[in-house]
């Protein structure tokens, strides 16, 4: 207020005393345009920073509002890309499974057709004029005669072929028992099991049964129980160990993992065999002739190989899942 009074006093100097009867003369007020410009400039300078700061705040707010939208778009694009890649992956897996199923069906159909043809055409050289009844009637008997002739000609090879077929079928049954569809079996796994049966079980069993007969060359009543006890302790331990070790090497596992699995499965598998084999071997050593024993044992091993293959692959898959 004092500053306003000072400015007013400067602009409007106090007039001299005028008498009552002195005529009043009009006065013009001085107008200073420079001061008015300075005042307007100062007012503008006071107002502009607020306006500028408001614009900056608005632009920042707009940027913040646009940020989440852009991130949502990126997330949508990423999710779309992942869904596309997942779809392509599922289609690839489906195509591979369809191709594997087709190959498995071709293998089963080819092997089954070959086996049935061989069994039914055993008398094709001289069955001219035979009826279908006569062909089916004499086929089992003549196939048995052909098997005995093969045993006489090359017993080791004949037993190797039988064991290879039995171990392949046993692994296939094991995979079906594990829940896989009939034509979705693992060909590599079945081939490994068949290879072990062909290359090792047939030949080793041939020489083992001869060794067992030489070890107990008696006709007393205790010979059969002694052979069963020897089979279910010494021979079972040797063969189960060979089976696990060879399968592990065929799966390209390290020796430490193989022997670790062998230690953990040795006793459970040995005791599991005692639930089946002692009763089967009472027939093996008490009734079946020496040259026919492996055929009988292989028929029983369709059940045993199913158990053995299932247990071995469960242990391997469990270890792989733990490592991963």
Automatic annotation (TrEMBL):
It comes from the Eukaryota. InterPro entries: Mpv17_PMP22. Residues 61-89 have a biased composition (Basic and acidic residues). Residues 58-91 are annotated as: Disordered. The keyword Membrane applies. One of its GO terms (cellular component) is membrane. It is a multi-pass membrane protein. Keywords: Membrane, Transmembrane, Transmembrane helix. It is found in: Membrane. The keyword Phosphoprotein does not apply. Belongs to the peroxisomal membrane protein PXMP2/4 family. This is Uncharacterized protein. It comes from Cuscuta europaea (European dodder).
């Amino acid at each position: 207020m004092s500053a306003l009074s000072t400015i007013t006093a400067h602009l409007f100097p106090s007039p001299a005393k005028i008498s009552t009867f002195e005529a009043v003369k009009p006065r013009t007020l001085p107008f200073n345009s420079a001061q008015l410009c300075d005042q307007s400039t100062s007012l503008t300078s006071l107002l502009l920073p607020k306006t500028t700061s408001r614009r900056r705040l608005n632009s920042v707010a707009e940027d913040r509002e646009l940020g989440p939208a852009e991130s949502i778009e990126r997330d949508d694009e990423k999710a779309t890309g992942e869904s596309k890649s997942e779809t392509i992956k599922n289609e690839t897996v489906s195509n591979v499974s369809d191709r594997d199923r087709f190959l498995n069906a071709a293998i089963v159909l080819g092997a089954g057709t070959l086996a049935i043809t061989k069994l039914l055409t055993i008398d094709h050289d001289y069955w001219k004029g035979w009826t279908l009844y006569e062909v089916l009637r004499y086929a089992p008997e003549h196939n048995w005669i052909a098997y005995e002739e093969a045993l006489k000609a090359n017993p080791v090879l004949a037993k190797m072929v039988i064991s290879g077929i039995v171990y392949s079928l046993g692994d296939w049954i094991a995979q079906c028992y594990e829940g896989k569809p009939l034509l979705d079996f693992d060909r590599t796994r079945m081939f490994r099991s068949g290879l072990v049966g062909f290359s090792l079980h047939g030949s080793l069993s041939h020489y083992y049964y001869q060794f067992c007969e030489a070890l107990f060359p008696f006709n007393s009543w205790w010979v059969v129980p002694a052979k069963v006890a020897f089979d279910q302790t010494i021979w079972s331990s040797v063969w189960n160990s060979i089976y696990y070790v060879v399968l592990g090497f065929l799966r390209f596992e390290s020796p430490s993992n193989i022997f670790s699995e062998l230690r953990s499965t040795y006793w459970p598998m040995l005791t599991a065999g005692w639930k089946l084999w002692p009763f089967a071997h009472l027939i093996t050593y008490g009734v079946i002739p020496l040259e026919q024993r492996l055929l009988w044992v292989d028929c029983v091993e369709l059940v045993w190989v199913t158990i053995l293959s299932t247990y071995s692959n469960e242990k391997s898959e469990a270890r792989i899942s733990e490592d991963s």
